[in-house]
Amino acid sequence: MVDLQQEQRTMLWTLTMHAHDAASERPILGDRYAADLLARVDDPPDLGLSLGGNTPLICARAKLIDDIARGWLARHDEAVVLHLGCGLDSRVLRLDPGPGVRWFDVDQEPVIELRRRLYDDSRTATVGDVTDPSSYRQFPADLPRLVIAEGLLMYLDPAGVRTVVDRALTPGSTLVADSVAPWVPWVAGLQPAMRAADTGFRSSTADLARVAPRLVDELSLVDATATRTDGLTSTFVRLFALVPPARNAMVLQTYERP
Length: 258
Description:
- Helices cover 42% and strands 16% of the residues.
- The chain is α/β, with parallel strands linked by helices.
């Protein structure tokens, strides 16, 4: 049994959402690896209504990042991909990068220990603290670099966000990251699951914007969820998005460092 602490426990929520989505009649992400991975977890979480309701949003986010990363990889036969805060995500399997791509699934030691236990092939699993500048010395700096930070930056304080931007992004590299509006950390802190995990959001889109390089694209994940769902879920999300602060509650941004 691996002892997961605080935000490390949230990766099991994400994995469970991916598995539930894949088993649905109309998958958004369609992660065919998630159910098998979840079956290997000793104590899978019960998402309940509050967390389970986030499944369309979380899977829409993952699908968009997959699409962006797939397009980037199609333009770079030889490259480095840093999947920061990877958790148990199967993105490297879903995208199946070519032989010229050096892919690193990076996370804290307990997470990587569990990842190595659950994955048949864990060669990409790499221990690293994204807030420790020295962690980035282990990655090649002589190739085009894609940095993926999914569901990560909001758990870091502004200083941690700055470290990721300053150290992960080499010249010419691309960052794909999601972040939340300044009011979202307070609301998220009201969720019982977040309190039980003794974690919470510590930064926002504004903190990332202050330190990030050139912004080249921004997508509302609320809008993305609305267009990838139907029925009552889609109606509710569309109504929610009519309120301007709500529409940008969570956004997916792409940055490029010259």
